[in-house]
Amino acid sequence: MTIQFSDNATTDRLRGEIAEVLTGARARTLALTDCLDDAELAAQHSRLMSPLVWDLAHIGNQEELWLIRDVGGRAAVRGDIDELYDAFKHARVARPELPLLDPAQARGYVGSVRDEVLDVLARTRLHGNPLVEGGFAFGMIAQHEQQHDETMLATHQLRTGPAVLAAPPPPAARVAVRGEVIVPAGEFVMGTSTDPWALDNERPAHPVHVPGFAIDAAPVTNGEYLAFIADGGYERPELWSPRGWRHRTEAGLVAPQFWERDGAGTWWRRAFGTPTPLRPRQPVVHVCFFEAEAYASWAGKRLPTEAEWEKAARFDPETETTRRYPWGDADPGTAQANLGQRHLEPADVGAYPAGASSAGVHQLIGDVWEWTSSGFEPYPGFRAFPYAEYSDVFFGGDYRVLRGGSFGTDPVACRGTFRNWDHPIRRQIFSGFRLARDLRAGEGR
Q1: What residues have CB less than 8 Å from 104, skipping those under 6 apart?
Q2: Cα separation of 417 and 30, whole Å?
Q3: Fold of 168-445
Q4: Which residues make beta-bridge pairs with 369?
Q5: Is 238 exposed, middle or buried (0-12, 13-18, 19+ CB in 10 A)?
């Protein structure tokens, strides 16, 4: 979301935009929970994930903590449940054993919190305090809810039983996308210091010199990944890092998660309870970092660094400026990217030509989160804001950065500077990748 304001005349418009994103997030949350009965909401569908009813009340608790108590300075709605919904106090695997609010209580709680939050919004000056400048705290909470909505969508993918979610198919490919794009060596501005809702790990903007490199114009597709499998990619330890091969062996990996092969040798992909034949031009999804790394080795390439990914996504070589998105500074619409759970799968490569970068790199935003080779580290000059637990405690850990968002990422939580991170073994997330390589002598001049 692009927000600018300079005087009091814009406050009502900003409040309206905030109310709109908060309302949109809540509608999605309720759609992801109202489609299941109470037993399924309280169940843990995977040890990797929380019960959906925990996510629901946690969303309300974070909203209460930040917007009612901190911004509004008001009394607690439910001061007795803070510890239950503190993500750092209870691992996901242990949350089903907690005395959680039941579904009816959780719905009532988040509804009461939201009613009061809208009153806080109507009475809060949205400038003069870093926490509310430009509506930051409200935007942070809208992003938090949408991030949990994507997590809940991943839980839906892990659950068994009949399909309960539905969405129209993504658009068909409009153009053919093949090959690589050369990005010449040079400096660009990475991160942001001006986006009012950017989170602390996206800040501050800083110049980065990136050596010349080539990056694939599109993410790796199912059809391309099938060739890796057919060539024994999962049986060849020389393609894998030592740690990656150990994980492949211990976890018994033979294909991306949710892929199944029938008796005739045909591959299918199960998506939200519905098996469908594998679409060869669709970006591969549900692969871990180690699988992406092994594929890159097999293809004679590598994963891009985080700086390479962002330069390919944001830098316009014609104007030598850094954009907010590959296509420019305008917010993403349905023509630019597959975002916001409008569809329940990635779109085929070539479906969003209007979203391509000026250099011709496609689908950098939406469809699948893209693994990079970079660990999660702070930018020079980083300052934790408004709390260390969002980013600071994760820096330097066993994480790899993912960029670009997925079909399950809402636009409010996706931009060219947005940074996601996860353990390299994770693949229940909507993760894919694209390849890069160093330039050969004489290229890029």
Answers
A1: 38
A2: 28
A3: paralog of FGE (formylglycine-generating enzyme) (3.90.1580)
A4: 431
A5: exposed
Q: pLDDT tier at 3 (50, 70, 90 boundaries)? A: very low
Q: What is the pLDDT of residues 366-424, one digit of tens each?
A: 999 999 999 999 999 999 999 999 999 999 999 999 999 999 999 999 999 999 999 99
Direct distance between the N- and C-terminal alpha carbons of the chain, in angstroms, rounded to an integer: 37
Q: CA-CA distance, 402 to 304, in Å (whole number)?
A: 10
Instruction: Give the bridge partners for 9, in sequence order.
Output: none
The pair of three-digit structure tokens given for residue 348, joined into one six-digit string: 């085929």
Query: 285 — phi, psi (to 5°)?
Result: -135, 155
Structure-token pair, residue 193: 């210091």
Intrachain domains 8-158 and 168-445 with the same fold: no
Instruction: Mention every residue, 6+ apart, whose C-beta is less than 8 A from residue 208.
Output: 187, 188, 189, 190, 307, 311
List pLDDT tens digits, range 73-121: 999 999 999 999 999 999 999 999 999 999 999 999 999 999 999 999 9
Mean pLDDT (the chain) is 96
Classify residue 188 by burial, with Cβ atoms within 10 Å: 0-12, 13-18, 19+: buried
Determine the Cα–Cα distance for residues 269 and 226; give it in Å rounded to an integer. Answer: 12
Provide the sign of the torsion angle of the four alpha carbons 137, 409, 412, 365, taken in this order: positive
Q: Is the pTM of this model over 0.70?
A: yes
Whether the upstream peptide bond of residue 242 has omega within 30° of 0, thus cis, is no
**pLDDT band with cut points at 50, 70 and 90 for residue 4:** very low
Q: Retrieve residue 438's tokens.
A: 């160093």
CA atoms of 264 and 242, how far apart (whole Å): 34
Tokens representing 89 are 């106090």
Tell me whether residue 356 is exposed, middle or buried, using C-beta atoms within 10 angstroms of its C-beta: 0 to 12, 13 to 18, 19 or more. Answer: buried
Distance set, CA 386 to CA 66, 224, 345, 378 (Å): 10, 43, 34, 15
Q: Could you tell me the residue ranges of all domains in the chain?
A: 8-158, 168-445
Rounded Cα distance between 67 and 144, Å, is: 12
One-letter amino acid for residue 428 of the chain: Q
The set of residues, in sequence order, having a beta carbon less than 8 Å from that of 263 and lying 6+ positions away, is none
CATH class of the domain defined by 8-158: mainly alpha
Helix axes 52-63, 11-34, angle to 10 degrees: 160
